[in-house]
Sequence to fold (362 residues):
Amino acid sequence: MLDEINARLKAAKLGVRLYQRGDRLALRATLPPRPGSAKVKPYQQYMALDLYANPVGFKLAEAEAHRLATLLSIGKFMWADFSLPDEKGGVLVKTWIQQLEEQYFHERARTSKTEGTWAKEYAAVLAKLPQEQVLTAELLLNLIAMTKPDTRTRRRTCYAVSSLAKAAGIELNISRLIGKYSPRRASPRDIPGDELILEWRDRIPNLSWRWAYGVMATYGLRNHEIALIDLESLKQAPGIISIQEGGKTGARRVWPCYPEWWERWQLADVMPPNVTGKDNSDLGHRMCVQFERYEVPFNPYDLRHAWAIRTIYFGWDVSLSAAQMGHSVQVHCDVYHHWLTDQHHQRAFDLLMSRPNRPKSP
Fold:
């Protein structure tokens, strides 16, 4: 029977062969590397089927061979689709997570950005599930219940759980559990004023990190984007820089605010710190470590907030500020305008009212 099946598979040119290994059956074909493998290209591998070498097993194995060949031919193959159930008849949590990861990177290119998103938004959340248990709706709901309502953690957990449930075919309506988290509900930041930013820039003894601090303050960059600057663009007056692909929101151009800082701090004399990291989160953490090392009384991201507020004083249209920061106008208003205080409003008002070309009352 084994020879007859393999003859039919060969005649159909499926590229799959059936083998008997002891009293069980297995398929062999050129398959993508298994999850966690160091290999990067497809190669010949066995796939255990958990089917006995009996008439029923042979019939099911031939059907699996055709299914495997079809998925390979249309680029839809995933290892988790052929994962073995445990003795209780279900599929383990870790197996479904592997399948979700395969699906995630099947739908998008594997880059430092997508890998960072997977690690932070999915893997870190789903790692809290009991990996060796069969995935059930109860396990997923318990994970959500472990988080505090109306928080970013609750929202992130709900999105990750929803994706895993969908991949596993588990019906789970958790829309009511997501809550009402919003950046507006977060604690206000004490955004540093420009004088304080100037003071602490001059206190940094290391020239490379002082340069990085100055660039972040002048252009409102994210922590990791220091490693994505087109350094040649920074050398050309008036210091309009280009951020390359690979960051959170892709390539964009950013204008200095203040332009005087580009000249005064000699940012054209580029001297970036020598930092490496496996992803954007890793790179961003390096900047936070340096701020702590030099005891800067605010965090790197506060320089970005200060830049956003400063553009208001300059009278920049909100759509321009948002585009240069690399996000939507909605995000810009929800996140950055949320931190405006009466002091910020008063300063913007005073500047606008002092302009000689402002509208006059009739």
About this structure: The first helix runs from residue 2 to 11. The domain at 194-353 is CATH 1.10.443 (hpI Integrase; Chain A). Residues 85-89 have pLDDT under 50 and may be disordered. The chain has 15 helices and five strands.
